[in-house]
Amino acid sequence: MEAQTLPRVFLRPPTPTDEAALLHVNQASIGHHTPWIFPPTTAEQFSAYLDRCAQADTWSRLVCQREDGAVMGAITLSQIFYGPLQSAYVGYYIGAAYARQGFMREAIALALDAAFGPLQLHRIEANIQPGNHASRALVQRLGFTREGYSRRYLFIAGEWRDHERYAMLAEDWTDHALG
Q1: CA-CA distances (angstroms) from residue 96 to 26, 75, 169?
Q2: Chain-wide mean pLDDT for the chain?
Q3: Domain N-acetyltransferase spans what residues (predicted)?
Q4: Helix, strand, or coil (residue 86)
Q5: Are the beta carbons of 95 and 65 closer than 8 angstroms?
Q6: 107: exposed, middle or buried (Cβ count in 10 Å: 0-12, 13-18, 19+)
Q7: Could you tell me which residues come within 8 angstroms of residue 21 by beta carbon, excluding any fewer than 6 positions away?
Q8: At a CB cut-off of 8 Å and minimum separation 6, what does 174 contact?
Q9: How large is the average pLDDT for residues 34-57?
Q10: Cα–Cα distance for residue pair 53/23, rounded to 1 Å
Q11: Cis ω on the peptide bond leading into residue 35 (within 30° of 0)?
Q12: Confidence of residue 1 (pLDDT cuts 50, 70, 90)
């Protein structure tokens, strides 16, 4: 099984056997995730997540703690386009018990290594709701550049929400890579 690692984190593809672990962390983190993201919290949602992960234009990984293998969250590169665009969107979340400890910073770094390495992409875009200060600070620490503001950009939890657009280019990542 493909896995990528940094000192405290590794990424691996999700499998059907991960259902209980991922649902547990997500159910325990509803208050932490709301209103920013709504990851799978039921068996049906987990099945739909696995179906999305299997799409050709998606690269999705579980974020796991290296120390004990615990599933902490997930990261996805979606809408992967090749040709002249060579781009994807990054989405991510981590369980409340693991938040603000640097785990997601390592996970995004591993995803960027994959994006600009084996996946041969040129651009990764992160779209963040303006009030999500932790996520905005995270991508800024990683070296993403703020490129703009998209009004009513994504339909989340029954309403259109504004987002700030951040991007990382392959040539920028070589200057910011964690190792």
Answers
A1: 9, 15, 29
A2: 93
A3: 9-171
A4: coil
A5: no
A6: buried
A7: 70, 71
A8: 116
A9: 96
A10: 16
A11: yes
A12: very low
**For 46-96, how does the pLDDT look when each residue is reduced to its tens digit (9 = 90+)?**
999 999 999 999 999 999 999 999 999 999 999 999 999 999 999 999 999
Q: How far apart are CA 80 and CA 58, in angstroms?
A: 6
Question: Residue 112 CB: number of other CB atoms within 10 A?
Answer: 25
How many Å apart are CA 179 and CA 57, to the nearest integer?
A: 26
Contact (Cβ atoms closer than 8 angstroms) between residue 7 and residue 101: no
pLDDT at residue 179 greater than cutoff 60:
no
Q: Each residue of 97-117: pLDDT tens digit?
A: 999 999 999 999 999 999 999
- ∠ CA 51-38-136, rounded to 5°: 110
Task: Kindly provide the b/e burial profile for residues 63-86, where b requires at least 16 CB atoms within 10 angstroms of the residue's own CB.
Answer: bbeeeeebbbbbbbbeebeeeeeb
Residues in CB range of 52: below 8 A, 6 or more apart: 58, 60, 76, 78
Query: Quick one: CA dihedral 133, 134, 136, 140, positive or negative?
Result: positive
Instruction: Tell me how far apart the alpha carbons of residues 146 and 59 are, in angstroms, rounded to a whole number.
Output: 23
